[in-house]
Specification:
This protein has one domain. It is 47% helix and 0% strand. The chain has 4 helices and no strands. It is elongated.
């Protein structure tokens, strides 16, 4: 048996939800907000639909799914 199949993993699964500003975040928003420090940085992401979509699109170019 493959070693990968016998190892333990922690899998984070969140329920899908509707979002006011984007069609789908696919968890990218959670990853991004978790890496920011300070309320002001977090507010920058949520400054309207255009800002959220642009931020997620830019982030998706640098974060590969695992």
């Amino acid at each position: 048996m493959s070693r990968r199949l016998s190892e333990s993993y922690v899998v984070s699964v969140c329920p899908m939800k509707t979002h006011n500003n984007v069609v789908v975040t696919l968890g990218l928003e959670n990853i991004l907000v978790g890496t920011l420090s300070g309320v002001e940085q977090k507010r920058k992401i949520h400054k309207g639909s255009k800002a959220v979509n642009l931020t997620l699109a830019k982030m998706a170019q640098h974060v590969a799914p695992t």
